[in-house]
Specification:
Radius of gyration: 26 Å
Number of helices: 3
Shape: elongated
Number of domains: 2
Helix content: under 10%
Largest sheet: 12 strands, mixed
Strand content: 35-45%
Distance between the termini: 40 Å
């Protein structure tokens, strides 16, 4: 079978056409430079491609989409280049099983099997026989080493990875197609690109009274003055951000170096009005959007997602996050230098309900997203626990000034909102939503 091979700078997932076709020579140059490019494999007489591969070595990423004869994507393979330059990790695969020719591409009801793999041998296999929302069965996949990893081919020597899917019994004969003259312009937003981790949204604006935001559920919310709870003492100079209810014995999940001292705890709040069916009238409510340790009054010039030493950003999928884990919808800011005694007081007071705790070491906080405070008398370090809106993983955002110094540490308790324009304009400024954990 003859398979035509074409190269381009990008692939439009919606239109199913290459964007900015390029010659094999230019593709080779982009490969050597680590720049993204796509390879399109087609069979004569077949409108839909057999497969499309996106290569971007600078992003440690190779992606593959397999298409059926109707032009629907049936198989997604996400490969990552990690520390070994000679092989690629099969990070993530999805196989779609369309129930009939009338089912649309990636239909929510389409049965699918998803496999996630990690370089340390971990993995997860999820079967969804009725598609998304129809129930799932999760197991640990039994994967051989040669199924977890793929040798990295040299440029131009990639096999047709979907040959078996398309029922090819003989090795295909590849023919390079000439690039069409296409000056292009800006790439469409529907072009495929390498996955990006969660991006910082309007974090600073959540603490600016008058800013307008939406959380996706309430169409318009107005930020009000932050609520200040009181100081948090961090004499060790190492701020811990963690789930106190999910301690694994290895210390706090996230730590951020700060100058030793006392810092203000704040809640970012936004007010919204809606029609309440129960009361039969318009009501106004104020929600807490985020909690913050304010390290400095200097505005943040940049925001970054904090991570642990072993977290590898090369493994993150689209909108993937690192952060702290909680099984009880609770997080905390604390002095990492006194983590163990502070955590012990948290457990005695909140979990065990010890009525004999000294008010100097344990204090409940009322009418706030912050729940309680504990204090280690030996060091003076403190812990302040706060409620989240659910279980799971919550990213920790570190704000830095122009000089690179930490000015604030923020946890969004309801996910990343979107910033609305100033009054008089109606188009929202979009930001990514909270993503899956790596």
């Amino acid at each position: 079978m003859v398979v035509e091979v074409g190269y381009a700078q990008a692939w439009d997932l919606q239109a199913r056409v290459p964007w900015r076709p390029i010659s094999v020579g230019e593709a080779r140059e982009r490969d050597a430079a680590g720049l993204p490019y796509v390879v399109v494999y087609r069979a004569a007489g077949r409108e839909a491609p057999l497969e499309v591969r996106l290569v971007s070595w600078r992003d440690h990423y190779v992606g593959l989409w397999v298409y059926d004869a109707q032009g629907r994507r049936t198989f997604d393979l996400d490969m990552r280049l990690l520390d070994d330059p000679a092989r690629l990790l099969h990070r993530y695969t999805v196989a779609f099983s369309y129930t009939g020719p009338e089912m649309a591409e990636s239909d929510e009801a389409c049965p699918r099997i998803t496999v996630e793999l990690f370089p340390d041998g971990r993995g997860r296999r999820t079967e969804e026989p009725q598609g998304k929302g129809g129930g799932s069965h999760v197991t640990v996949p039994s994967v051989r080493d040669d199924e977890r990893w793929t040798d990295r081919p040299a440029f131009g020597e990639w096999p047709l990875l979907s040959a078996q899917v398309h029922g090819l019994t003989e090795p295909p004969v590849f023919e390079i197609t000439e690039a069409a003259d296409d000056s292009g312009g800006l790439a469409p937003t529907t072009c495929w690109r390498p996955p990006r981790p969660e991006q910082p949204g309007p974090i600073a604006e959540l603490f600016r009274p008058g800013a307008r935001v939406t959380d996706g559920y309430h169409p318009e919310m107005t930020v009000v003055e932050p609520r200040r709870i009181g100081p948090l003492r961090v004499p060790s100079g190492l701020l811990a951000v963690s789930g106190p209810d999910s301690d694994d014995g290895n210390g706090p999940h996230i730590t951020v170096p700060v100058p030793p001292g006392e810092y203000v705890l704040e809640e970012a709040r936004a007010r919204h009005t809606y029609h309440c069916e129960w009361e039969g009238s318009q009501v106004t409510r104020t929600n807490t959007m985020a909690v913050r340790v304010l390290v400095s009054d200097i505005p943040a010039a940049t925001w970054e997602m904090a991570s642990r030493p072993d977290d590898d950003p090369r493994l993150l999928r689209e909108n993937g996050i690192f952060g702290f884990d909680t099984d009880g919808a609770t997080g905390c800011f604390a002095d990492a230098g006194a983590w163990e005694p502070l955590l012990a007081l948290f457990e005695k007071g909140l979990i065990q309900g010890d009525p004999n705790l000294d008010p100097d070491v344990y204090q409940d906080i009322n009418d706030s997203m912050y729940l309680l405070r504990t204090r280690d008398q030996a060091s003076g370090g403190e812990l302040a626990a706060f409620a989240t809106t659910g279980d799971g993983t919550f990213p920790v955002w570190v704000g830095r000034c122009e000089a690179g110094e930490v000015v604030g540490v923020v946890v969004l308790v309801e996910g990343m909102p979107e910033l609305l324009p100033e009054s008089g304009s109606r188009s929202p400024v979009m930001h990514s939503a909270k993503g899956d954990d790596a």
